[in-house]
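Chain A, query sequence.
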Amino acid sequence: MTKVAPIILVAIASFLWGFIGFFVRNISKISGNEILLFRFLTGLILLSLFMIITGKRFSKFNSKWLLINSVAYSVWVIFYINSIASGTPLANAAFLLYTSTIFSILFSRIILKEFVSKRKLFFILLAFLGVIFILKPINMQIHYGEFLSLMAGIIYGFQIVTTRKLMKNFDVYSVMFYSFLIAFIITVPLNISNFVIPDFKSTIYLILLSVVSTTIPAILFTYSLKKLKAFEASTVALLEPLTASLVGFLIFSEFLDIFSIVGGLMILISCFEISKASRKIR
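Chain A, predicted structure.
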């Protein structure tokens, strides 16, 4: 199989992830944490069915890194969805989340002892400058939702590294399954006191969010990693923040100021150049 098909799968996955904000914005009268409860539960059920149908076996939960990875996944998704639910412009939320690529390099240096070249360090600093442009701290009024997205990006970057560490001994689908399971367990107590039964419209969008922008892209992206190198997948995945930006602009009429545009471009360029740098050393 050529690399064209896996690249298309990554593009489709990234495009579908870009619609997370669209589905979340159309779910009303329930909290961001409740949205996550349904999302994790549905993803857990669908992934379990997928593994049963394909005859795949679950790996044993016998590593502290499985727990660490699953908790990290839970936290960054909670931060990101609540960021969108709080009204953060979809483009800004996606740009800040995508700093995960940058933070994964820093965590790789700490956890996996991987070398960080001067070129990568330069673009890491450029990405941080892009974050400053988006947050606009000079105004002394950092948006709460944007702060959540940045925290999501940091923790997501950490989870990328722990996932890579786990891939040496665990299959991808088991890692995904335990991530959904732990995330579901964590979100249950967050919804005990304010659980609301969603109306019909919100239920439909919850299902679409769980299937279209969670389980399907996760499986497509994971499968593609068997055929692509990490830098190839991460480069194509740049489609996600671009899709989120278009969704925010075309559907929700979210106009970005010059600082967000410049900051977003800095982050995207940095991610692209770091991917190129990774390719050259492989």
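The mean pLDDT is 83. The chain has one domain: 4-280.
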